[in-house]
Amino acid sequence: MRQPVDLKKAFRLINHGPVTLITSAHGDARNIMAASWTMPLDFDPPKVALVIDKNAYTRELIEASGEFALNIPARAIAPAILKAGGSSGRAGDKFAACGLQTFAAERVSAPLVEGCVAWLECRLIPEPHNQEAYDLFIGEVVAAHADKRVFIDGRWRFEEDKLRTLHYVAGGTFFQTGDEVEAD
Amino acid sequence: MRQPVDLKKAFRLINHGPVTLITSAHGDARNIMAASWTMPLDFDPPKVALVIDKNAYTRELIEASGEFALNIPARAIAPAILKAGGSSGRAGDKFAACGLQTFAAERVSAPLVEGCVAWLECRLIPEPHNQEAYDLFIGEVVAAHADKRVFIDGRWRFEEDKLRTLHYVAGGTFFQTGDEVEAD
Description:
Two copies of one chain form a homodimer.
Chain A: E1 2-4, E2 20-26, E3 29-35, E4 38-43, E5 46-51, H1 57-65, E6 67-73, H2 78-85, H3 94-98, E7 102-103, E8 112-113, E9 116-124, H4 128-134, E10 136-147, E11 151-152, E12 155-156, E13 166-170, E14 173-182
Antiparallel strand pairs in A: 1-10, 2-3, 2-6, 4-5, 5-10, 6-9, 7-8, 9-10, 11-12, 13-14
């Protein structure tokens, strides 16, 4: 059900501000964390900006490998997002602990997560000052994919609740992406 | 219906990724633009990151004044968001053209927009390399307010559609912030 997304349209996968799962790998290690603080940064070539705390194991893996992926989870795996956000991968494989399966990315070493509806494979653009002063990381999107049941002709088209993306609030609660509003 | 928001909780106003209206002012000039590419950058003191194109009049005003505001519009003013996103303030006052009323901020010169449900008053943290290389701006939130009908005890609580926040997709279409999902 996955199809490639034209890189020029990759920004649309996160333009609406969904919660993400950041995956990373280096050598035999891999990790996953939940992150709401991400945004598109450019169209072409597509770039993203994201915030990763200094204590995060994910940060070590991204700085070592220079790669990561943003996975956009569907509502059906909301419990796994909370688990991924509430524990550290230093203690053991978090994918197994969260009950998440993965598949191989095309262009990066970071694994991609099943149960998501979009995936952005990214290469880190090192910016040491931003990383140190603001925990702010910038990446170039080098491949993108989406579930063709909900991302159709370059646009999100949600119908079933279980395939909707999510927006994180606080305290274990999300909003699902709601109805379309035509403003014209 | 506005109440102050504790600065430590200001990030929650944009944590779910809503579309924003960026306002700015310098001398007699003021402007408004629509922006989806914003995110929280820190909790305390709260910071935000946002992307502003080199051609934007808003960018001139922010660089000159060192201040801006993020206004979080409710669904009821969706048409005005599109107008604000589709024209330049260099040609004349965009607030009037969009049919938007404003009120004075507490700590910055940028006006705040009626019809919104949250407002973050920000001071620019100059980062010339980010601004030049990535169109990326960083601000510290110095005051925050929210509509107490929908932001209650530090949490978004949406009921009526017209007061829901919005997430921008493409082509004049938004998603409204949807139902709460409890994942615990």
